[in-house]
Structures are given as structure tokens and as C-alpha cells.
Write a sequence for this structure.
């Protein structure tokens, strides 16, 4: 059987690409090595982590915040096994949903490990070892990413864990050491801190959330410290040794200095992710990769080998599910003769802790480095009526606008529901909107979104409630 398109991998990029291609009339198949669809995101990433973040937040609310609202339920008891069941129900619902969507759109599914035998040929090795070769006009590689390993640190997913193991712990570690102060480490650290862990974060850089707006990151660190996080910044981990009771982590100042050690019940290695391209046969067929192991593509997601394309975490750009989804739709439309396109300057990023952190566009640091003249408008949630009523006043909204044109260049939010609020900014920026456009748009009262309007007003120094 021959196809117009075969997609290898059914994570967010892969399954969206396949569905869009099928909608456009291309005969499409997917190859998936897992027994379920959805890739890292739905199985061991975005979805299960958000379920645990939600559940652990509810647990903390019940123990620490309910009494202030007059809701007296007594001290809650943690049933971690049931919480893990709650998490898995969310995973199952999402993965089965993708299975249904592929079937609905008449996408053929082949379970097994995919290898590109040649341009136009995908070899699928099933779990029982049987092989079949599929013929196709085009191939899209959407195999995602894997956790970054630290040299000399063995991950056993029991004591020394990756993000995968951190989602499956059967007991709350008394002390959890997190290596890396990026999104994954802070989110998973938040889960276990809420459930009772002492959380210590060791980070090589002198700040948390590298790449995020510096002012936002500093405020976020202060809030996490207030919640109980401990940070050891500017520190290089040199060794992790498993012991009978857990592990001993050795670190030293990144700039040089005397080493220190920390005893931990569990150590989470959260130092980033790397493209997953092993076993695809890329070297054999001559597909070019860059120095970071990412597949090189042109503006139309084509590799140097005709008929082979790549999207998502295996190519350059932020390793985000929604970026992969947009690329999946874009390449499907390109293959169907349409003008697929992704606006890389307007891809939002969210940290799903409490408070949440969300960002889109350029940071102040980036604007200064580029020599761009800009104006800043900021508005704190302490001055927002809904936030005050609900006692969720931590954080603020910051809008950066071009000093000459007033075009919005970046928006950064720390606060409750920041991940939802940021999309107002995404839409405004997609249409080339100005801070005045946001400021003149009527916002319902009382809502947290009014803080976005007030920050836009503040760009022109005319905020009302501050």
C-alpha cells in the first residue's frame, strides 16, 4: 500500500500533522512505537504533570487556604495512589481521544518502531519483531525529544529520576533535590513540595527560568522561596551517589570553589531535553543534523533529502507541544499545496505552577540587547478587584511596546491564570496590535484580565487603579 504521507510519531506535532493532511485529502498513515498515541506530552509529560499540579494544588488549598474562606474540612489526608489514578484517568482520556480522532479522519495506524529505509520507504518493526515496509511520497519525522542526561549520573527512575519517574513516585520523598531551575524542575518540584517534600533546587546559572524576562524570574523566585523552595544558584553538580537511604549529591560553585554535599531521598534530573532521532536511519540516508543533534530543515520543514520533512522537538526552536502542533499543520498544508506558516515570534510559554508564569514575545533583556527603544506598562494584581476578592494577589502584568509605533513587542505575566491571560496578548500581537488597542478594548469586571488592560494603560502612564 502506498501513501501520500507517513508521519513517524504521534505526539502533538505528529498526530495534528496527520489529521490536517487527511482533512486536505492526502492518504495518510502514522507510525507509533508506544502502545498509545500522544507522545511524551500526553503520556509522560504535559498532561500527567498538569493533573498532578491540579491535584496537589487542591490538596494544599484544603490544608492551608480553605479555613480563611470559612470552609472547615479538617486536615486533609493524602491518598497518593488515588491521586496517581486521577492522573492516569486524564492520560487515558487524552490518548484515547487521539486514537478516536485518527480513526475518524481515516488515518491508518501502524504500531512499532519506524526507520526510514530510503526516501519514500518506512520500515516498521512491531513489538513481536515482525517487519513491514510502507511506501510513501512524503515522510514527516515527529519523534519528539528525550531527557538530557548528566555525565556520570545514572537515572534509575527510583532514586535518581527524570521527569518520567517524578510522575510515578509511590511515596512522597522527605527531601527532593531538583537539578535544574527550568520549567520542568519547578513544576514537578511544586507538586512534591505541596504534598510534603522539602525541595532544594540546584541550578548552574545564577537565576531561575533562563530565557524568561528577568524581572518576572526574580519575582517568581521570591514567591517560590516564600512557599518553601530552597535555591542554590550558580552551582555545578559534580556527582550523584546512591546510598542505602537515597542519594548524596555533590556540587560546587560554577565559578570555582569548595564542594558541598546534600543528602536526598530522591534526586530529579531536570536539565532539559534533547532531540530523539535514534534508530531512524538518518545517517544512512544522509539527513543533515546540526551541532545540537537537531534535524536541519528549510523554511518549509524540508530536510536536505527530498520528500523527508521534520517538525517539533527534533528541529530548532522551543520544545513546546503547541509549537509542534502549529508546525504539523503548516507542513501538512505545504504538502497539500497551501501556504502553511508559523509565526515564531509569537509562541507563548507557560509555567504551570501557582502562581503561573506566562510569556510571549521579547523580554526586556532582548530589547535592550537589540537596541530597541520601548515603553513599559506594569500593573500588579494587588490592585485588581477580582484578585483582591479571591486573595490571589501575587504577581503582575508587564507589557513592552515599541516607543515609536506602540506595537506590542512582548507581554510577561506572573499570577493566577497567567497561562490563560497571555492569549489576549498573543492575539493582539498576531494582528500587530498596539498597547492602545488593548487599553481601549472593554474588559469585563471583575476579572483578572482587567490587569492586562491596566498594564496596557500604564504603557502611556494612564492606569486607573494604580
Amino acid at each position: 500500500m502506498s501513501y501520500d504521507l507517513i508521519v513517524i510519531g504521534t505526539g502533538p506535532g505528529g498526530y495534528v500533522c496527520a489529521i490536517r493532511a487527511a482533512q486536505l485529502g492526502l492518504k495518510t498513515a502514522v507510525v507509533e512505537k508506544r502502545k498509545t498515541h500522544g507522545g511524551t506530552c500526553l503520556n509522560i509529560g504535559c498532561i500527567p504533570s498538569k493533573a498532578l499540579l491540579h491535584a496537589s494544588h487542591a490538596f494544599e488549598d484544603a490544608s492551608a487556604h480553605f479555613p480563611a474562606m470559612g470552609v472547615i474540612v479538617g486536615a486533609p489526608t493524602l491518598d497518593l495512589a488515588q491521586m496517581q489514578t486521577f492522573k492516569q484517568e486524564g492520560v487515558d482520556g487524552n490518548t484515547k481521544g487521539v486514537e478516536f480522532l485518527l480513526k475518524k479522519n481515516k488515518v491508518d495506524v501502524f504500531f512499532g518502531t519506524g526507520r526510514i529505509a530510503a526516501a519514500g520507504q518506512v520500515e516498521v518493526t512491531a513489538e513481536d519483531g515482525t517487519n513491514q515496509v510502507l511506501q510513501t511520497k512524503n515522510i514527516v519525522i515527529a519523534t519528539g525529544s528525550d531527557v538530557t542526561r548528566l555525565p556520570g549520573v545514572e537515572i534509575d527512575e527510583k532514586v535518581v529520576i527524570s521527569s518520567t519517574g517524578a510522575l510515578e513516585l509511590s511515596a512522597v520523598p522527605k527531601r527532593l533535590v531538583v537539578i535544574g531551575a527550568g520549567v520542568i524542575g519547578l513544576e514537578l518540584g511544586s507538586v512534591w513540595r505541596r504534598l510534603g517534600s522539602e525541595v532544594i533546587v540546584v541550578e548552574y546559572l545564577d537565576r531561575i527560568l533562563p530565557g524568561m524576562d528577568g524581572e518576572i524570574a526574580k519575582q517568581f523566585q521570591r514567591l517560590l522561596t516564600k512557599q518553601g523552595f530552597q535555591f542554590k544558584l550558580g552551582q555545578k553538580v559534580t556527582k550523584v551517589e546512591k546510598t542505602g537511604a537515597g542519594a548524596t549529591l555533590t556540587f560546587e560553585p560554577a565559578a570555582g570553589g569548595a564542594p558541598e554535599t546534600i543528602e536526598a531521598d530522591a534526586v530529579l534530573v531536570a536539565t532539559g531535553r534533547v532531540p530523539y532521532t535514534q534508530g531512524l536511519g538518518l545517517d544512512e540516508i544522509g539527513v543533515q543534523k546540526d551541532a545540537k543533534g537537531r534535524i536541519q530543515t528549510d523554511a518549509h520543514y524540508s530536510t536536505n533529502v527530498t520528500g523527508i520533512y521534520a517538525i517539533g522537538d527534533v528541529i530548532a526552536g522551543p520544545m513546546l507541544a503547541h509549537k509542534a502542533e502549529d508546525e504539523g499543520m503548516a507542513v501538512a498544508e505545504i504538502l497539500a499545496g497551501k501556504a502553511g506558516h508559523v509565526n515564531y515570534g509569537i509562541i507563548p510559554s507557560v509555567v504551570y505552577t501557582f502562581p503561573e508564569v506566562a510569556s510571549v514575545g521579547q523580554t526586556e533583556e532582548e530589547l535592550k540587547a537589540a537596541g530597541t527603544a520601548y515603553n513599559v506598562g506594569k500593573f500588579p494584581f494587588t490592585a485588581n478587584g477580582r484578585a483582591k476578592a479571591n486573595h490571589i494577589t501575587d504577581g503582575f502584568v508587564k507589557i513592552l511596546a515599541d516607543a515609536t509605533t506602540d506595537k506590542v513587542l512582548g507581554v510577561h505575566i506572573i499570577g493566577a491564570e497567567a497561562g490563560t491571560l497571555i492569549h489576549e496578548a498573543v492575539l493582539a500581537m498576531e494582528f500587530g496590535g498596539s498597547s492602545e488597542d488593548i487599553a481601549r478594548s472593554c474588559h469585563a469586571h471583575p476579572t483578572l484580565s482587567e490587569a492586562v488592560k491596566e498594564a496596557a494603560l500604564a504603557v502611556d502612564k494612564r492606569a486607573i487603579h494604580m
Notes: The chain has a mean pLDDT of 97. Residues 80-104 form the longest helix (25 residues). The chain has three domains: 2-147+274-342, 160-271, 346-459. DSSP finds 14 helices and 22 strands in the chain.
